[in-house]
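We modelled the chain as a single entity of 539 amino acids. Its sequence is:
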Amino acid sequence: MSTSTSKKSPQARPAWPVWDASAAAHLLSRAAFGATPEEARRLAAMPMAKAVDALIDAATRAAAPASPKWVREPWINTERVWADTADEQRRENHRAAGRRQRDEAEELRAWWLNRMIKTDGPLRETMTLFWHNHFTSAYNKVFMSQPLYHQNVLFRQSALGNFRALLGATLTDSAMMLYLDMEDSDKKQPNENLARELCELFTLGDGNYKEKDVREIARALTGWTLDAPPGADIPRGKEGPPSFRGSKRDGIVAKFIPERHDDGEKTVLGHTGKFGVKEVADILAAQPATARMVAKKMIHFFGAIDPQGALQKRLAETFTANAKSETQMAAVLRTLLTAPEFYAAEARGAQIKSPVHLLVGACRQLKLEVEPTPNLAYYVGALGQHLFDPPNVKGWPGGRNWLNAGTMATRMHIGEVLLDSEQLAGLEPLGRTRFAPLSRDEEKAKQTMAAVADFEMEGRAKRNAVGIKCRFNPSALFAQGPPDKPAALVDALLAHLLARPVQPATRETLLQLVSATPPAARVTEAVRLILAAPEYQMA
């Protein structure tokens, strides 16, 4: 290769792909959890740009889902402690609140799964999931469900909107404030947790800020707390002795208290002024490093190839050019989903499906009659993606991290879960026992562990009582009836469920199974095997 060619290569793009049903199926597999052949053919009949616009338009038009039945406005703290609260009542309130929050969290996961499975605008839910893994918060730190619900609504509303607006709203989002300890940060002792993750993970990335910037941003974010909304009629009493923060909280609405805010001058990334939340969001959203960070994360999430960074550069340029637009992220998506790097042969069938993608995609492709339940959501958690509970502030890393000995075995049983509504045994994680306090008092430690075990058992019993409610109707896949010949049936199902051709050995195994199965059960048994095939684990 000549020197002049080498200099040009970083800007070279892959060859433009043929836009056909295969390319459309790839688009739907990444942007909409999966595709049926009918959906792929419908999009392929349009020019590529119009097909992408159709997905974006459907996402924009998608109506907001109804809230879970337990969401109440204003939220009431049922474990609030007052001076006259007896110790036994305090303990009982705490136990009851713990049970309620656990039940609500499980219902919240099922509620979101239901939305992803049944929505007419799947790209909006795909982007909601993207933001959920970008601006990370987790139940295991928040310990309340309603703030996480509110955050999910925010991400859905802003999914394809303006990044600066979403960033500003996230900084005073109750779940984020609880997760990164902003609730009680004041000018006397600014908490740097949110400021640090804001720089490192949410906007700039390593190497693009200094420790002084973190300290100055932490000062700018002081003065915010959580309280009841103005005018709310909530129980009041005389404050009792010091107690844990959750027992003293009156509400989960962000409230600014000027006297607790550091109103002095701060210098952030070379800008100086008496900054607060708004100015911090303005400065960070406008940084070129933020544009590059968001572009990089989207390329990883949607599985495009970009070995030389050319696609990242173009996405960052689109991000910056649309900085004032209310549809900024839609423009970035349009650039990504029409890029040759997205459709390159190396990108297709090369992304390991996340647990959510695997289950939601199967439900949509198989046209299942499904009522998502906490047990179905728990199965997704057993696969490694417990919604609203990412492993840490960096979120789920994805890729090969989805696969280990435990999750691979669980993936292989997705057919039993979806086709038979079978509840798999042995999926219980360590759960709350990970956080159970240890005690040098052996008897007290035993009591604590017994209480934790009882709590887990109660939750398991409630999930199992509801079960898994899925029904597969083979006729939904074949309106005119399935093909009579085994080879034709196998090829039709592979075309329906997979975006890329399978290995010959996989097809041969399927053909042997179908040939040995009575006609009435052929479709179900073939689908069961396809769901467990390595090729189906990839998008």
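As a brief sanity check on the tokenised model: The CA atoms of residues 433 and 452 lie 6 Å apart. Confidence is low (pLDDT under 50) at residues 1-10, 429-440.
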